[in-house]
Amino acid sequence: MSENNKEIIYDFLKEAKKPYCDDCLSKFTNVTPRQQVNAICNANQDKIK
User: pLDDT tens digits for 18-48?
Assistant: First the structure.
């Protein structure tokens, strides 16, 4: 799992200030596959709120 992808998702969610589903996060951040987005979010739930 790329540390860069984690930062991309975290930065996107910090700016968005609202929740997104895995499919939408993958689409908007270009992080693929969607399962990687899910794994990143699940592993970092305490930081992404």
Answer: 999 999 999 999 999 999 999 999 998 887 7
- Cβ burial, residue 1 (10 Å; 0-12/13-18/19+): exposed
Joined together, the tokens standing for residue 28 give 């908007």
Q: Is 42 exposed, middle or buried (0-12, 13-18, 19+ CB in 10 A)?
A: exposed
**Number of Cβ atoms within 10 Å of the Cβ of 40:** 23
How many Å apart are CA 18 and CA 1, to the nearest integer?
24
pTM for this one? 0.82
**Which tops the pLDDT comparison, 2 or 19?**
19
Q: Taking Cα atoms as reference points, which of 31, 24, 27 lies closest to residue 9?
A: 31
